[in-house]
Specification:
Blueprint: E1 2-6, E2 12-15, E3 19-23, E4 41-49, E5 54-60, E6 64-71, E7 73-78, E8 83-87, E9 90-95, E10 100-106, E11 113-120, E12 130-135, E13 145-151, E14 161-162, E15 167-172, E16 177-182, E17 188-196, E18 199-201, E19 204-206, E20 211-215, E21 219-224, E22 229-236
Parallel strand pairs: 13-14
Antiparallel strand pairs: 1-20, 2-3, 3-4, 4-11, 5-10, 6-9, 6-11, 7-8, 7-10, 9-12, 13-15, 15-22, 16-21, 17-20, 17-22, 18-19, 18-21
Length: 238
């Protein structure tokens, strides 16, 4: 087993007035040659967007983009004709593929919006752009780690999916609990961030917004404290 620990305090920082951002990996004006990405996970941004402000219309291409609001709501609009609200408790998935333009703006004129913006490199280039979103609560099993987004070839019915052999998982723990996570494929790694609370992973104690990347293993053991919420992303390492 190999690992890298990223304490919350070591993330990149940016304050643009309308946006306060914490960057897990090099992004915008933050550059660290040792933190370009984790496997095919390219971006994990922890954003706070001022009221009525946001990311105006802009293009993306060949990237799988997952957005998870933590508080507040996002007003979404894109060149595919999708328009609506993505609130805390929802998860948004967009495949930029051959090219898409979109805007993501704080839907409130009074309250700040907090969200995770996550990018994963796709396994296929120039696919048709697509959009989807769902309520997270319907996808979770309490006190367990639940897969909320999976690869296209494994998705059934109306499950959320992306164009990559990657698995997005969330855990919400209302009691102290130890659990194991078995990786789905050889050659994968996991990047685990504590949204809030405390977990122990491979003898590392992680608290709010601390993260750990682990690879060269088939399974990890996680001990979560009551009140913990975590994000676990499994991705190919190359």
């Amino acid at each position: 087993m190999k690992k890298v620990v990223h304490p919350s305090s070591t993330r990149g920082n940016a304050n643009y007035g309308w946006l306060e951002a914490k960057y897990s990996f090099s992004f915008a004006n933050y550059y660290d040659p040792n933190r370009l990405q984790f496997g095919l996970l390219r971006v994990l941004n922890d954003d706070i967007v001022a009221p009525a402000m946001g990311f105006g219309k802009h293009p993306h291409q060949n990237m799988e983009i997952v957005t998870i609001p933590q508080s507040g709501a996002v007003k979404h609009k894109d060149s595919m004709g999708n328009e609506g609200i993505v609130a805390a408790g929802d998860i948004q998935v967009m495949s930029a593929g051959s090219g898409v333009e979109h805007s993501e703006v704080n839907a409130s004129a009074k309250e700040a919006l907090k969200l995770f913006q996550i990018w994963v490199f796709p396994e296929e280039q120039n696919v048709s752009p697509r959009y989807d979103q769902k309520k997270i609560a319907t996808l979770l099993t309490p006190n367990k780690i639940s897969t909320v987004v999976k690869p296209k070839n494994e998705a059934k019915d109306n499950e959320l999916w992306i164009h990559q052999q990657a698995y997005f998982n969330l855990g919400e723990f209302t009691e102290d609990r130890s659990t194991n996570y078995t990786l789905n494929q050889q050659g994968h790694g996991i990047y685990l961030m504590v949204i809030e609370g405390q977990v122990s992973v491979d003898d590392e104690i992680l608290k709010n917004r601390d993260a750990i990347g682990i690879w060269d293993t088939n399974e990890i053991s996680i001990t979560a404290k009551k009140g913990t919420r975590l994000l676990l992303i499994e991705v190919p390492m190359n």
